[in-house]
Each structure stands twice: as C-alpha cells, then as structure tokens.
Amino acid sequence: MYQIEVKALLVKAKFHAKEGWNVCVHVDPMEKAKGGSHPNGKREAAQHSLDVLEKAGASIRAHPMYGRIDIVAEKPGEPCYFIEVEADSSRQREQGMYSALGQLLVAMNDSNRRYALAVPDTPEWNAQVTKIPQRVLDLLKLEIFLVSEHGVRMKASQLSKTA
C-alpha cells in the first residue's frame, strides 16, 4: 500500500468533511508518481487516492499555518490532529517509521493537539509500530492508526484506553 493510499483511506474513514472535519493533506510529487521511476500501477493508484481525498472533502496542499504535515485535521470542538503517514516504499520500514516519528516530535509544541502515526494495517507494519513502547506512546500522547481498505483501527494496546 502506498503512502497516498493510506492518507486517502484514513481521511475517508475518520476525518470526512461530512462529519465536520476540515482536512489538509500534503502530497508530494513522488506520491503522485511524478518524476523518477515508479512501479506499474502507482500512478493509477495515486489518482484514485486523490479522487477519494477530493470526495472526502480534503484540501490537497500544505496547511497554510502548519506547513507540510502529512495530514492536519481540524473540527470545531475537537483537538486538532497532526498525522504523519508511512507506507511501503523503496526505503526500509524502520527508516520510514523513524522519519515520521522525528517529524512528529519536532511538531509537538501544543499539548491541546493530538499527534498520530498512520501506517498500513499489515503484519510487517504492526511489527514496526509494536517497537514503540507503550510508555512512550502514553508520555507523548501519540496515537497509532492502522489503516486498510476494511477500515481504521488503533494499535492494540490503545484499544482499551479509547473504548
């Protein structure tokens, strides 16, 4: 699953405009399969995901105030979400996860916001996010979204806290 597909499925399932969410999704050219070489079908998957994001009411751009965070989701009466997204790419999953965590850490300047990492709901990505100790997730108030075509769920150890 590509990063743009994770973004589209997450926004469609949890942050849809019809539920009152205002969402900015940053999409870089590589996610759209522009420039460089890309696997067959990536361009079509990217276009489909852009269509899903558009139908969900998302703005495809950097947030005017917060910049190039993968997803900024705002809704009146709710905390603002800053979400970094990782998915399958040419780099190792571990490197992708560390990069996303670093981006979130430097953005954590407001205790009223909610911060999250979103990854595909696969055994490989589950193994990566399980490396983050629950104590660290609790201290940082960091949520993990596991995303698939079947929906979005939270990392298992978080389920009891949100239920």
Secondary structure topology:
Layout: H1 3-14, E1 22-25, H2 42-55, E2 59-60, E3 71-74, E4 81-85, H3 93-107, E5 114-120, H4 123-129, H5 134-140, E6 142-148, E7 151-154, H6 156-162
Parallel strand pairs: 1-2, 4-5, 5-6
Antiparallel strand pairs: 1-3, 3-4, 6-7
Helix pairs in contact: 1-2
What does this structure look like?
The chain has 163 residues and is an alpha/beta fold. 38% of the residues lie in helices and 20% in strands. It has 6 helices and 7 strands; from the N terminus they run αβαβββαβααββα. The longest helix is centred in the middle third of the chain and has 15 residues, at 93-107. The chain starts with a helix and ends with a helix. Residues 159-163 have low confidence and may be disordered.
Key descriptive features of the protein:
163 residues; alpha/beta; disordered C terminus
Strand percentage lies at 15-25%
The class by helix and strand makeup works out as alpha/beta
Largest sheet: 7 strands, mixed
Molecular shape: globular
Radius of gyration: 15 Å
Low-confidence stretches: 159-163
- State the strand order across the main sheet: 2-1-3-4-5-6-7
